[in-house]
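Subject: complex prediction, re-run

Hi both,

The earlier run crashed halfway through, so I resubmitted it with identical inputs.
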Amino acid sequence: MSTQQPGAATGPGADVLARPGTGPRPVVRLAGVTKEYPGGVAALRGVDLDVGEGELLAIVGPSGSGKSTLLHIVGTLDRPTAGTVEIAGHDVATLSDRSLSALRARRIGFVFQAFHLVPGVSARDNVAEGLLYSGLPRAVRRARAAEALDRVGLADRMRHRPHELSGGQKQRVAIARAVVGEPDLLLADEPTGALDSASGEAVLALLHDLNSEGATIAVITHDAQIAERLPRQVRIRDGRVVEDARAVGDVRTRGAVAR
Amino acid sequence: MTGIRNHGTKRLRAARLSPRDVAHVGASGLRSRPMRVVLSALGIAIGIATMVAVVGVSASSKAQLLERLDRLGTNMLVAAPGDPLFSGEKLKLPKDAVGRVSRIEGVEGVGATGDLERTVRRSEKIPEDETGGIGVKAATEGLLEVLRGRVASGTWFNAANARYPSVVLGHVAARRLGITAPGQQVWMDDRYFTVIGILAPLPLAPDVERAALTGWSASKALLGFDGHPTSVYERSADAAVHDVRKLLGPSISPQSPRDVKVTDPSAALQAKAATEGAFSTLLLGLGGIALLVGGVGVANTMIISVLERRYEIGLRRSLGATRGQIRIQFVTESLMLSGLGGLVGVALGAAATAAYAASGGLPWVVPLWSVTGGFGATLVIGTVAGLYPAVRAARLSPTLALHAA
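This time it finished cleanly. Structure:
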């Protein structure tokens, strides 16, 4: 068990709190997170995970490993049975459902495998929907939506409706919707899962670009190849983090996480 | 929490949706399924249309009656001989009854008829017993004005023609005799009388409609009329009706006021106007049932909509919608759905009333309360029908909703 960098994924013995200010600020901080479903099925068993600001990481694991549950917990869509979850400095356990909604509206962006755009509505309005619950006036929402579409390279597709877009373009619209509020954290659930390889490449490149501009992005995937191409990989199996590896320059360091 | 101290200093507060945004999210579900919207709004529309039409049709009929009442006035009273206390004695009004009534304070006009035991026939060839139910009455010159009657063709009695064998026919009498225009003659009491006028319908005096009227003096001279009026019609100011009614008996017959029977011919019309619409309770009930069924249809549509759109609910929750915002979205959708049905229903009901009114020559009346009440009912139904599905939608766990895709 070892930790390579401050603010990196930690085992029980490594605590970034002991060294404040030495690394990027954690956007996500999970400590001993366990999620059990009625009937005694445990989807997560004591997961510790820190994600620092500006990181791009893959949460990778086979189906049934608990990565979707992890996504829901990190996305504050679900609460853990045990352990603490802090997102952007907020302890989720202390927040009401209303406050969690506000947290999601301002701090977290979601990208889903199946895009889930509103049919019959222009790309721009779809992106603006990402700000609907932020409290911004409609005109501002539409202006920011245009900027976000520009940022994902779809400035010429503002008025196109979803059925007029390719799969890759749809996913880029969905990404624009997720980042239009400039969230602290972007959660992408199998973002390339429904795309051909060329479109998948483009989407991954876009995520890299957004990351280089400062966005903190967690990609949830079962695809080890996609995970390999991201700077950090957190492998999950049977509800536990089994490996946390990150590349430093060209050198890839690996840390086996204690069970 | 030193490592994350820079984050989250601001309190988290969920933003409110503006009314326009609420309408926007509420309409989003409707836009994507227009056919279902039309069908489920139709149920509401039929219910509301039935109720608005039922109320509208009876209100139109009532308006017509009131219009007629207004034209005819409710300020006319009729004095007639009462029923004798002891049999065998036939009561009569005094000969100067018209003069006595005209002196009562508040009386504006007086007219009288006197029944004659005569028959009127088209010619002497017609058997005497074929009277056609037509009475012969002596009439004063003031009668027509008091009745607010109108001569359909020809002329009414005046000082000149009232002395000669001339006759004015009520419109029913003219029809039964086959007289279509003045100038023709009818056979009365062994001689021909010339028809000088035919009256328009008189809703307040059906017996005058069915009579051949002769001038007061000619009746005395030619038909053996004794000069005792049978009915004295008077019209007074509206405010005076009550007092005049009390004074009619004593004025006509000071010795025995009870021998005078006073009636108000407009009372029957007033009663009819008052009860107009009572029959429609059953139809209103049917409309209510249709509305209820429509409401169930909306609730059903909403429940299906929630089931189908679980993923959308999950997505909106992930975008930051609170439970309350999900709830208001679905209630708004339900309100819009039934409100749409209500609008269409009000329009249909008003159109049906207009068609009925046009076909029956009635004034077109759709009471405002039926429109607002009907529309209000749809909003209540929309809220009630949408509440349960909306609460279900809001309670849906976001993760379960996202899995349902």
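Chain A has one domain: 16-256.

- K.
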